[in-house]
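F.,

This is the one I mentioned.
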């Protein structure tokens, strides 16, 4: 049993679970991009992709896409999360149980017909909103720099720490302001 747990833990890493759910997200520490995140290859374009996440741990990328088989949104499970394993052969791979339940998975709650509250299982105090935008398509919206934007990318800088409690230096959010079309970037330390 211990060996199985050790093997499972070896194959995943994650953002830490928030222990104080009522605290607001920390203030941004920087609002400009650096060249560090540019060394990670962007994932291929996809019509159903909502946003993606990359981390300094390795070149693998998490893809968060709309779960709409046959063109209709799955209301019980509106989002599909999977890896693109750039550090290996670039193959697509599903999240394992620990990654899905304790790290990169999402919890969704239907608010209205076309709106869902979306939260990371590992960081529930950062609310996202899945809803249709002015273009009639679903997007993930986040509040960045005090504006509601379409979220495109999350980058997590990790330096040391342990498997269950990595030292997260910052989380960078990138998105597009729908009213201006301008890219908005914000960093915060969770």
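My design for it:
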């Amino acid at each position: 049993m211990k060996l199985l747990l050790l093997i499972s833990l070896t194959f995943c890493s994650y953002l830490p679970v928030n222990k104080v759910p009522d605290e607001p997200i920390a203030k941004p520490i920087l609002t400009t991009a650096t060249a560090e995140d540019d060394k990670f290859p962007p994932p291929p374009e996809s019509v159903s992709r909502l946003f993606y996440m990359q981390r300094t741990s390795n070149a693998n990328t998490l893809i968060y896409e709309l779960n709409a088989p046959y063109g209709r949104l799955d209301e019980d499970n509106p989002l599909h999360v999977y890896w693109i394993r750039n550090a290996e052969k670039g193959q697509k791979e599903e999240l394992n149980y620990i990654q899905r339940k304790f790290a990169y998975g999402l919890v969704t709650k239907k608010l209205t017909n076309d709106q869902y509250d979306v939260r990371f299982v590992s960081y529930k105090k950062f609310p996202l909103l899945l809803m249709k935008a002015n273009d009639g398509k679903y997007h993930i919206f986040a509040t960045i720099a005090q504006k509601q934007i379409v979220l495109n990318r999350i980058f997590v800088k990790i330096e040391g720490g342990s498997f269950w409690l990595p030292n997260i230096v910052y989380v960078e959010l990138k998105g597009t302001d729908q009213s201006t079309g301008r890219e908005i970037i914000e960093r915060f330390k969770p």
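The longest strand covers residues 147-161.

Talk soon.
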